[in-house]
Amino acid sequence: MNITIIAGSNHSAATSTRLSEYIKHLAVQEGHNVTLIDLYRTPLPFYSPEDTHGGHQALEGFKHALLEADGIVLATPEYHSGISGVLKNALDHVGQDHFNNKAVLSVSSAGGAVAVSSLTQLQTIVRNLHGINCPEWISIGGDQRKSFRVDVAFADIHPDVDLRVRRVVRSFLGLAQQLTASVTK
């Protein structure tokens, strides 16, 4: 399957981006083709209803990756109980044709204990785009974030955090596979 992961932070050392890289690692280990778009390294133009960005290379690549995806992962830091501005901007550029009947996993990282508000917001956006929300999500916060610092190897992720992330990623990949199979029948 083709999996597209959107790392929606505007910070070079974001734990949500590092978590996205780990999810990519796990999906590749399962034999999937994975495209990771890091919005810090690949910024998109500000959305405008006039859509004057035709031909913008990064934007066209972003849209194409979502169209080709069988499953989508949306990762964000939680800022003031919401998703990041760069992720919201990116999602404003796409429509239902990019998400329709595709499995979507919501992932968030918070400085506090959990990041539930941003995950709820992401799932609402996914519903409006006609995506299928994975019934599980990943929320890391507090000390759990230490496992996803850039200086921590994947092999050194805290075992409890690793087990939870692996379980949720397996669940997401299973849902994506079921939805993909139902479309191709």
From TrEMBL:
<dbReference type="InterPro" id="IPR005025">
    <property type="entry name" value="FMN_Rdtase-like_dom"/>
</dbReference>
<comment type="similarity">
    <text>Belongs to the azoreductase type 2 family.</text>
</comment>
<dbReference type="InterPro" id="IPR050712">
    <property type="entry name" value="NAD(P)H-dep_reductase"/>
</dbReference>
<protein>
    <recommendedName>
        <fullName>NADPH-dependent FMN reductase-like domain-containing protein</fullName>
    </recommendedName>
</protein>
<dbReference type="GO" id="GO:0010181">
    <property type="term" value="F:FMN binding"/>
</dbReference>
<dbReference type="GO" id="GO:0005829">
    <property type="term" value="C:cytosol"/>
</dbReference>
<dbReference type="Pfam" id="PF03358">
    <property type="entry name" value="FMN_red"/>
</dbReference>
<dbReference type="InterPro" id="IPR029039">
    <property type="entry name" value="Flavoprotein-like_sf"/>
</dbReference>
<dbReference type="GO" id="GO:0016491">
    <property type="term" value="F:oxidoreductase activity"/>
</dbReference>
<feature type="domain" description="NADPH-dependent FMN reductase-like">
    <location>
        <begin position="1"/>
        <end position="141"/>
    </location>
</feature>
